[in-house]
Amino acid sequence: MTLLVTGGSGALASSLRAVLGATADVTWAVSPRADRLGERDVRLDVTDRLAVDALLEDVRPTAIIHLAGLVGARCESDYETAVAVNVGGVRNIAGAAEVYGVGRVVLASTAAVYGTSYHAPAAENAPIDAVSAYAKTKYAAELELQSSAVQSVALRIFNVFGSTVPNSIVSKLLRSSPGRPTVMFGLEGYVRDYVHAHDVARALLLSVDVTIESHHECFNVGSGVPIDNGTLLSVLGDLGTVHARVEPAQSSYSCADTTRAGSALGFSTCLNLADARL
After folding, report:
1. I want to staple 111 with a disulfide (CB 3.0 to 4.6 A). Which of 69, 80, 148, 158 is the partner?
2. How many domains does the chain have?
3. Concatenated DSSP letters of the chain
4. Average pLDDT along the chain, 278 residues, taken 10 residues at a time
5. pTM, whole model, 2 decimals?
6. Is residue 55 part of a domain?
7. Residue 17 structural domain
């Protein structure tokens, strides 16, 4: 298998590199603004269709894992660029994949497409409630793949943590201090599903080879365990002193029903919050 991974300098790619090791036949496409390139790194602007075509013509991958994208506040502050990267980039990858006979495209999507107003683990057929700019562009990216002819899998990834994810609330709490507490929005009413980056990397690789029933499938990637902020503080407190400032409570829920990922991908989590420093 010849694999192309976009977003090769991001947090998920770091875990994917660790899981794959040095012997895998992988080309890592990194940002055009990357300062340094590894032995198998190439610069790529996913919004440039000609550049995407040229890379696929050169690499001839059998599968693509698409991690490149704009995230978080940058999507809200520059929605036009978010659409160009998160949606247009996927359109370019899918179009080039069709031309050059790529067997599978795997997209790192997000659990944010479900919103946070539900109260039980969400299955893949749950209503879409993409509120944030990030969620809107990721769901639009899923639709781009669904409408293309290429075989594809979209992974709706829940709250990722681990040493490669410094911006997760888990990492922020572990770095917190009395002078720099981590802001948390409520305790019992604020619930999330935490999944380790190494487990996400395994799900990405499982998605490359899995037999799918139609040309496009979605799978949730999470632990399936709802953890409220009070429990999060308690568990991380066992790893060391954490400091938090609790803002007025919000009712907010996000948790995966992982049934399909378990049965179709053979995916289950093997790491938990006690492994947060890994």
Report:
1. 158
2. 1
3. --EEEESTTSHHHHHHHHHH-SSS-EEEEE-TT-S---TTEEE--TT-HHHHHHHHHHH--SEEEE-----THHHHH-HHHHIIIIIIHHHHHHHHHHHTT-SEEEEEEEGGGG-SB-SSPBPTTSPP---SHHHHHHHHHHHHHHHSSS-EEEEEE-EEESTT-TTSHHHHHHH-BTTBPEEEE-STTEEE-EEEHHHHHHHHHHHHH---SSSEEEEEES-S--EEHHHHHHHHHTTS---EEEESP--EE--B--HHIIIII-------GGGTT-
4. 94 94 88 85 97 98 97 93 98 98 98 97 98 97 97 98 94 95 94 97 97 94 97 93 90 97 95 89
5. 0.96
6. yes
7. 3-162+194-224+255-270
